[in-house]
Amino acid sequence: MSLSPPTVSSDDTTRRHERTRLELVSQWYDSRHGLNREIIKRAAAHIVSRAHGKRALELGSANGVMTEELAARFPHLDVVEAAPRYAQHARGLLPPRGRVYHCLFEEFQPKCRYHTIVMSWILEHVADPRDLLTRARDWLAPRGEIHLVVPNAESLHRRVGLAMGLLPRLNHLNESDIAIGHRRVYTWQTLSDHIAAAGLRLVEMQGLLLKPLPNALMESYPPDLRAAFFELSSLAPRLCSEIYAVCHHPNHAHTSHTPDRLR
Known about the structure:
Elements: H1 10-26, H2 34-50, E1 55-59, H3 65-73, E2 76-80, H4 84-91, E3 99-101, E4 114-120, H5 129-137, E5 140-151, H6 156-163, H7 175-180, H8 188-197, E6 201-207, H9 215-218, H10 223-231, E7 242-248
Parallel strand pairs: 1-2, 1-4, 2-3, 4-5
Antiparallel strand pairs: 5-7, 6-7
């Protein structure tokens, strides 16, 4: 009697492809140095400054720059990471009560609800960001918050690239975007739309870095000059290189962090 080969569903094929894709990126991408590290540290400072509760979830740890900051704040920090080398590194950073879930976001099944969920530089990578936000909404504890960081398509340095003819349009994915696995870049409007489509309430949005030039040129500046561009972010938030947003479950009680803080 002959045996038929096992049926492979389209979902299985898609997830296998996604794991391969993430593993390839993890072989070369390293956020522990240069301007990327400084931006992640600035985002972490924003998150930690307003975080509450003891349980946090980070979706995607990469080299662990954000993970390390969150682990110092939360006694219970869980991480979801599909790339094996990133997942292994995260295990060495977590507090005793933390756990690394080595799986895709689409496969994650939480064992508790979280006071803080962090998706820093994640939504631009996933196939369906609205679905991920919708699922994350149901992982929140009462009064919990989701913190998002995404690249800004309308940033000053992209506008410079457009003016120089280096980009055909602001939301074009350049070689760097494609290499790192970006599927999109965000505008303030598209991020707001995705948050609303997921049934979440946007309560704060701001820029992180007013970056006039690409990373390599910015890294040639003295540290105090780079720090000045971080401080200037509040003057022109919609021109910043990254968008930072905080959102709540729609049943979240009203707090002092109201939409008039969107800048």
